[in-house]
Write a sequence for this structure.
């Protein structure tokens, strides 16, 4: 059972917002488990569950890697037959560098690479933002303070987000794995989160409810 955006825009938007709230609740559980289990908690099952929560009732293929092409305006994702192997490489890179890279470098890589691979039919950005925050919190050893968490702040501050993704894309095309702009962007938004800075005034989107308090931030 699913709703098409073209069929009922208002219902589609409501479902999407409710899905995000449920995804963030699930994310709390995943982070708490990740703090106990460490690096091995970052796997494809985590990503599948976060994606399934994000696209419930708006996509029939939530929680599984795509088996068909997708088309984006400014990026051509890899062929779907390459997705399982690319995701294995992606997860391996995160695990192998867990104790080598900083939390900002790891989170930046996760946020960029998931968007680049685009492993799901729907909800890639939502999944990437949640996974990015998972890495930040687990690497930091706990949930971070603030009423509005990083994934929501990214959703409401997209221009520098897209610029950082493009910079990482260009570096990759030149044979480099480099994302300094993304690291700076994530660091800034986390500072704003911890200081409980309100979202930028230019944002017109509704804000998904927070995790609830300063210790369980959304």
């Amino acid at each position: 059972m699913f709703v098409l955006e073209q069929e009922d825009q208002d219902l589609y938007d409501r479902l999407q917002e409710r899905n995000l709230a449920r995804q963030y609740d699930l994310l709390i559980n995943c982070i708490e488990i990740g703090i106990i289990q460490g690096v091995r908690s970052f796997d494809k099952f985590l990503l599948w569950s976060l994606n399934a929560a994000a696209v419930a009732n708006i996509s029939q293929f939530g929680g599984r890697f795509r088996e068909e092409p997708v088309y984006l305006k400014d990026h051509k994702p890899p062929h779907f037959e390459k997705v399982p192997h690319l995701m294995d490489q992606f997860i391996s890179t995160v695990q192998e560098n867990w104790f080598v890279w900083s939390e900002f470098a790891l989170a930046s890589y996760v946020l960029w690479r998931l968007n680049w691979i685009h492993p799901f039919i729907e909800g890639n950005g939502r999944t990437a933002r949640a996974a990015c925050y998972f890495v930040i919190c687990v690497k930091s050893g706990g949930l971070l303070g603030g009423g509005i968490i990083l994934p929501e702040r990214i959703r409401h501050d997209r221009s520098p987000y897209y610029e950082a993704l493009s910079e990482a894309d260009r570096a990759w095309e030149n044979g480099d794995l480099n994302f300094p702009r993304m690291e700076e962007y994530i660091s800034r938004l986390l500072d704003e989160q911890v200081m409980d800075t309100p979202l930028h005034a230019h944002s017109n989107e509704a804000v998904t409810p927070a995790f609830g308090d300063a210790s369980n931030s959304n």
Q: What stands out?
A: Confidence is low (pLDDT under 50) at residues 208-218. The domain at 9-194 is CATH 1.10.3290.10 (Fic-like fold).
